[in-house]
Structure formats: structure tokens, C-alpha cells
Amino acid sequence: MRSILATHFPKRRARAISHRTISLRARLLAALAPAALLASVIFCPAVAAHAQFGPPATTPVHDPAALKPPPGAKVAIIEFEDLECPDCAFANPVLKQAAEQYHIPWLRHDFPLPFHNWSFQAAVNARFFDTKSKTLGDEYRDYIFANQISIETPAQLQQFTQKFAQAHGVALPFAVDPMGKFAQAVKEDYALGQRIGIEHTPTIWIVTNGSHVAPFVEVVDRSKLYQLIDQAIAETRGH
Questions:
Q1: Does the pLDDT at position 54 exceed 90?
Q2: pTM score of the predicted model
Q3: Is the pLDDT confidence value at 172 over 90?
Q4: What is the rounded distance in angstroms from the CA atom of residue 215 to the CA atom of residue 47?
Q5: In what helix (H) or strand (E) does residue 217 lie, and over which residues does it extend?
Q6: Preceding omega of 45 cis (within 30 degrees of 0)
Q7: Domains in the chain, start-ordered, CATH in brackets?
Q8: How far is CA 78 from the centre of its chain?
């Protein structure tokens, strides 16, 4: 992570330092050495305590009511995503492949971050394509993730959305959400994420319907995604 602070030091002209000055500085450093050593002993453990090594902690779940598979499914993937989030773009093909390979539902929730300038509109656009078919809506999400690096402004998002609509034979209206119902649905997803306790995107869980097994487990390390799905399927088999 880049620091948000930057310290600038002005250049100074080199000056001659006499042997006497060097000697005084040496004596001063010698006198301060014990104090510096004591400070390092006192403060180093505190710094180490704040350093994070290994995978990040899981998301604290405040309201788990929504973390369950849809009716008829034993295991599912639940994701909260932001269409402008680069890490969501990296995760997208991995989750898509897993859902297809295991034939389990993949429930995608919108969580557009406020500092992204086009992610909310992209989520609204996806809801518009959902009305044509859920498959088309998800294809649009995949398309936006695949082209995310080329989209920097809302105007560019509109251009890519128009291309997608034309390629799929959909007439894109001037206003895709004249009544604001798609925007309201996106806001409801965002509010749901806040109730659950979402802190970042993507946030991904493997969820089960069994009361005898863990109802949900967060996928913190995506290299273990298949392992977690295998475990969930094994634990719900026969129940």
C-alpha cells in the first residue's frame, strides 16, 4: 500500500565541519546511545504488534441472515462485488469457473464503493440487462470486468455498454433506469452488505444449508476456493 504522506527535505549546501565539531558530535552521540537503545527496546515490540503477516482476518459478520444458499441448493457462492474494483475483476473468472464446474449457484451482490466514479452506474446497467435475461446481465458484468482496464470515465462506460448492447441485439434506451428502480435495487444490495459487515470488495463466502455444518466460510485465500467448496459439499452430502 502506498503511503498517503510524503516528506520533502530541502537541499542544503555542503559545509566544512571542523575536527572539533566532529569530536563534540561524537561525544554527544556516545552520551545519547544508552537512551536510544532503551527506546528501541521499548518501542520495537509495539511496532511489531501492528505489523500483519500472513492472510488478512476474515470479515466480522454482524448479520448472517443473508448468508445462505437459495432454496433447493445445499452449497452456493455468495459474492459482494464492485464492477470498478480491480481485485473483483481478477476474482471474476475464478468464481465463474468454480460455479460452472461444481454446478452450484453463484449469488452476486452489488457493493459499489463511493470513491469509484462509474461502478454504481455499471451496476444499474447490469440490472437493466438482467431484465432481458439473468444470463445476459451476468454476461454484461463479465464483459465490464474484462474491459475494466480500458474504462476510466462514465462516458467510456457508456461507450462500452452501447457496444455490448449492439452486439447482443438490445436497444439501449437513452435512460436505462427512468424510474430509479434499478438504482434502488443496487442501494438495497449495498445496505445489505453494510448490515452483514462488508469491509472490502470482493468479499466471498461459501455457504451451506446444513445446521450441522458451518453455515458459511469466507474465502480469504482464493487459492483454497476449490478446497472449501469440496469440504462444503462433502459435509452436506446425505443431509
A1: no
A2: 0.74
A3: yes
A4: 36
A5: strand 216-218
A6: no
A7: 18-51 (no CATH), 64-236 (3.40.30.10)
A8: 13
